[in-house]
Amino acid sequence: MESPRGDDAALGDETIAVRGCSIETPALRSVLEVFDAPRTGWTAPTTSVVAGGATATLSATGPDRFGRLKAAAEDLFDRVQTPEPLPEGAKPRLFGGFSFTADSSREPPWRDYPDARFTLPAVQVSITSNGTWLTTAATGPDAGQTATERLDRWRDRIAALPVFEPGTPPGIETKRHTPTLGDWRTGVESVVERIRDGALRKVVLAQSLSADLTRELRVVDALTRLGESYPGCYQFLFEPATGPSFLGATPERLVKVRGRTVDTVALAGSIGRGETKDEDDWLEAQLRDSEKNNHEHDLVVNAVRGQLGTMATDIETGDRTVRKLSNVQHLQTPIRGTLDEDRHVLDLVEQLHPTPAVGGLPPDAAMRTIRDIEAFDRGWYAAPVGWIDEHGDGTFLVAIRSAVTDGTTATMFAGAGIVADSDPDEEYDEIQLKFRPILDELT
Ligand SMILES: C=C(O[C@H]1C=CC=C(C(=O)O)[C@@H]1O)C(=O)O
Question: For the Chorismate-utilising enzyme C-terminal domain, which residue ranges apply (predicted)?
Fold first, then answer.
């Protein structure tokens, strides 16, 4: 049967034909399983999407990658042609992401993850509040006919897909932590010293955990289980045409732009979950009352408000609440504003990334400190991943609670905000909890 692999090539000024239709809602994991790379998986509260193949791939490198990607995306959507306007849910989207920083040369396991890469899928299945939609795209001399044939073939194929048979986690043979506990303590102590000297206010230091797997990991399986274990999170999968898969279940949305409404959230300050309700309530109270965690959280709220304030007015900060996930609880504050003019979601992404929930304050000094101390490339970890539509609307997540995997190895990443009162061993333990979402899918 036909693979969704499309015309993954430079587009020039070619027309892009897009077709869409409503379909019966399938099990998205069954659809994802039969797609060839590049694949995308996306589960958010109101929309779930799986996509396969690439009718166009946009990439950009360097510090102006956000602006260059935005220009390429606008140019691409200008060339999309449909016989009649598609319903909102059937409209094509570009899916992809950015690396945490643009100034480093990518190291393994991130070699196949450039500074920015987005894909216009050849086949996209979207479950939205207004129905389930199949969308296909094609280029070339008979683009319209190719897109229509692709639509017909995939509509039939999706209707006849076998039931997805879930597997079991692959198991872990060996694990390697970077840094070691000793080097972690040294790193945190040096950050705390710099904070006490007044050179810094907060830095988020991360660790990586690499695992050799006993059996091959089935990515769709892992993504499905993440959805079951972390239903309040956003599950994502980004898989290039060749190279390892990047997947995760993040609680953190960087930004959502719809028209002139912009939503973001401050998420920082963490504590574990209790074994019993009493212990859990006690831990929640500890988090709510913790001066250290509230300070860490305040820094993020104020910085995000400031960053948003350059592009939005009427900024409203919601109540500070405790967000409970299966592995940890976080302090969380929603922030909403009205854009001062029509803006592209990538303008907001550029403005907000990295928030001090993954970078630090002041931003430049924090980024230099991260570069000095961390002995690995963050790649797309803690970076913006998401989608863009023809209006420049979109949603981007902060790609934490994530791993990159080639099937036989998996490298997980997690970080913790270091402030003046941070204790290296407590921060170390917090990070081990943050590895849990992915680790539990492997063992
Ligand atoms: C950097 C991570 O978490 C951030 C998000 C929520 C809470 C955080 C904290 O309490 O340190 C971190 O800022 C991560 O999970 O890798």
Answer: 183-434
pLDDT for position 73:
98
Return the ligand 1 atom nearest residue 413 CA: 16
Residue 202 annotated among the catalytic residues of the structure: yes
Cα-to-centroid distance, 21 and ligand 1 (Å): 40
Contact 402, 438 (CB under 8 A): yes
How high is the pLDDT of residue 104?
A: 64
Query: Does the global pTM surpass 0.90?
Result: yes
Q: How confident is the model at residue 2 (pLDDT cuts 50, 70, 90)?
A: very low
Backbone angles phi, psi at 415, to 5 degrees: -140, 170
Count of CA atoms in the C-beta half-sphere (13 A) of 43: 23
356 Cα–ligand 1 center, Å:
9
Candidate list 33, 70, 91, 202, residue with the active-site label: 202
For residue 26, what pLDDT is reported? 97
| Segment 349-358, tens digit of pLDDT | 999 999 999 9
- Which ligand 1 atom sits closest to the C-alpha of 269? 10
Choose which residue among 293, 330, 422, 433 to substitute to test ligand 1 binding: the one with the highest number of ligand atoms within 8 A of its C-beta.
330
Q: How many CB atoms lie within 10 A of CB 37?
A: 17
User: Catalytic: 434?
Assistant: no
For residues 25 and 135, what is the distance between their CA atoms, to the nearest angstrom?
14
For each of the domains in the chain, give its residue range(s) and CATH number, in order of start: 16-159 (no CATH), 176-442 (3.60.120.10)
Query: Could you read off the pLDDT of 83-101 as tens digits, one per residue?
Result: 999 999 999 999 999 999 9
Cα of 268 vs centre of ligand 1, distance in Å, is 6
- Identify the residue whose tokens are 């073939």: 153
What confidence tens digit (pLDDT) does each residue in 280-335 have? 999 999 999 999 999 999 999 999 999 999 999 999 999 999 999 999 999 999 99
Tell me, what's the pLDDT at 430? 97
Q: Which of 188, 233, 267 to mutate to test the pocket of ligand 1 (most atoms within 8 A of CB)?
A: 267
Q: Contact at 8 Å (CB) between 138 and 146?
A: yes
**Distance from the Cα of residue 64 to its chain's centroid:** 20
Cβ count within 10 A of residue 162: 9
Ligand 1 cavity residues, CB under 6 Å: 204, 252, 267-270, 330, 357-358, 382, 400-401, 414-417, 434
